[in-house]
Amino acid sequence: MNHPFFKSLQHFLIYAGAWLMVTVIHASVLLFFYDIPFVFSLLDGFIFNTLFAFFGLSLWYVVAHSRYNKSPMLNGFTTHITSVTLLLLIWISLGDFILSLFSGNNIMYDKFLSTALPWRIISGIFYYSILILIYYIINYYNDLQERSIREARLNEIIRTTELDLLKSQINPHFLFNSLNSISSLTITNPGKAQEMIIKLSDFLRYTISQDSSSLVSLKEEIENAKRYLEIEQIRFGNKLQHIFNVSDKCLEKLVPAMILQPLFENAVKHGVYESTELVIITTNCISENGSLKINITNNFDPEAKSRQGTGLGIKNISERLKLMFQQNNLLNFNKEKNIFTVEIQIPQNI
Amino acid sequence: MEIRAIIIEDEKPATDLLLHYLKSFSQISILGTFSDGFSGLKAINEIKPQLVFMDIQMPKLTGLEILELLEHKPAIIFTTAFDQYAVKAFEANAIDYLLKPFSSDRFANAVNKALEKISQNQNNQPIINSALTVLEPNQSKMERIAVRSGSKIQVIPVEDILYFEADGDYVKMHTKAGNFLKEKTMKYFETHLDSAKFIRIHRTYILNVETILRVEYYDKENHVAVLNNNEKLKISSSGYKLLKSAINL
């Protein structure tokens, strides 16, 4: 529970300065309206206000405590009645006691002291109310700030969780089918089996090592996509071919990790899985106006009728791009006759 | 005794593996390998093998769709990486299913079981009948229906179907391109179609809600649905309730 006036020297000086002003006003009133001698006015103002300033600091704990103690209104009310009574009692008796040590035999001042009690009580309650009000405002403000920080942190957590969810999961069917191919190759072609195991391992390593929001070079992404396509090529043979038209300039650009593989998986799923003809997957890339455009095209069999899972991979990538770059329409796709095209844009000025 | 068998599988390494495992079964002769659903179905009907090794996910027709369309019913061993199908096949006590990848022991086990069934069934009784209804993934809704029209096989996406009509032992599917018959029950379609899109509006009709133009009174108490093509279908009172909640009438 940080005391607001001890948070920094500046805060403390503001508090002390405010009380100094009150002291000056207090002393001036005594001096000019009650004709109390200068020294006594100053002494009276100084002692009572310094004492209140001192006790006032502790009032913070009364307010701060009420924040954690979710008591009903009435309970808070009695707390304040008790604390203001106690405070006034101590404050006035202690003040009077200290003053009596200094006041010699000034008649005017003695007379004033005997009539001052009601005024002391009224000003005490007034100071108390003002201080409590200030403390409540500070308390409320702190609460608000804390809540907005918590909210921001929560939003961040939600965002990363969503990204994690959207990040391509390894398709178990792909894994089992690949393992089946390896199982076959160990008998018919052990050298190729070895090669496929290494490709599959590299692919899996890349997939699990990437953070959902990390950026990698397009070169790494394309290398991984090639590994994926080569594994599928072992399964489907000459039915699947791929062409990459990507300049060296594009290869250096940064893209979100695991953003391409789901698009190739989509092309293989709806192109190769459903077709008996050759399917060619072509990748083009241009970098212009601070944005990287990657375009993936494949042919498919238009006769092949809808199958479950349509478009889920595409939708996920679209959502991921939206979450990462806070921008809509970073993914567009188009189906025409027997050609499917998907284009993603990766903003580079981030 | 020689057993005639074929393989229907779209992945070459998977086919190679089956051929390799089959080397130790000298009584089985492989008459051909086929890499898509259409050619596989054609081969079964023409070659009439006693034993078929078949993948489930393939181009053109899935293994399950082939099963529905068969005239000649051989013993079938499914091979698949999709275990949601396999569990169902196991419950139905189909000849067998093999989850990819599988061992040679597991394969031998399945083949021996099939050979036993075949030797008990010399008169070519359908062996996998019981698998037919259960071998469908029940968690996902039907998206397409394979039908035979004449000598041709057609695959119809369900969204192209205007309505289903009971027709004796068959169900007639009405589409813009014509009508198709399928040997199934109305109950089968009612449970397998997406119930938000296809409503059993009458004992004889299941209606695609997309095709409704309007619903009007037929007489004091009964309603009819008017379709896009101006056809009118009777709605029963229980069907009306279902339809009302489906389209927020």
Description of the molecule:
The complex is a heterodimer of chains A (350) and B (249). Chain A has helices at 9-33, 38-68, 73-102, 107-115, 117-166, 172-188, 190-209, 218-236, 248-251, 261-272, 312-325, and strands at 215-217, 240-245, 254-256, 279-288, 291-299, 331-336, 339-347. Chain A is rod-shaped, with a radius of gyration of 39 Å. In chain A, β6 (331-336) and β7 (339-347) form a beta hairpin. Chain A has 11 helices and 7 strands. Chain A folds into 2 domains: 4-165, no CATH class; 167-347, Heat Shock Protein 90, CATH 3.30.565.10. Chain A has 350 residues and is α+β, with helices and mostly antiparallel strands. Chain A has a 5-stranded mixed beta sheet with strand order 2-4-5-7-6. Chain B has 249 residues and is α/β, with parallel strands linked by helices. Chain B has a 5-stranded parallel beta sheet with strand order 2-1-3-4-5, sandwiched between helices. A 5-stranded antiparallel beta sheet of chain B has the order 10-9-8-12-11. Chain B has a 3-stranded antiparallel beta sheet with strand order 13-14-15. Chain B is elongated and about 75 Å long. The chains are: A alpha+beta (350), B alpha/beta (249). At the A-B interface, α6 and α8 of A face α1 and β7 of B.
Topology:
The complex is a heterodimer of chains A (350) and B (249).
Chain A: H1 9-33, H2 38-68, H3 73-102, H4 107-115, H5 117-166, H6 172-188, H7 190-209, E1 215-217, H8 218-236, E2 240-245, H9 248-251, E3 254-256, H10 261-272, E4 279-288, E5 291-299, H11 312-325, E6 331-336, E7 339-347
Parallel strand pairs in A: 2-4
Antiparallel strand pairs in A: 1-3, 4-5, 5-7, 6-7
Chain B: E1 3-8, H1 12-22, E2 28-34, H2 37-47, E3 51-55, H3 63-69, E4 75-80, H4 83-91, E5 96-99, H5 104-120, H6 131-134, E6 144-149, E7 152-157, E8 161-167, E9 170-175, E10 178-182, H7 186-192, E11 198-202, E12 205-208, E13 212-217, E14 223-227, E15 232-235, H8 237-247
Parallel strand pairs in B: 1-2, 1-3, 3-4, 4-5
Antiparallel strand pairs in B: 6-7, 8-9, 8-12, 9-10, 11-12, 13-14, 14-15
Helix pairs in contact in B: 2-3
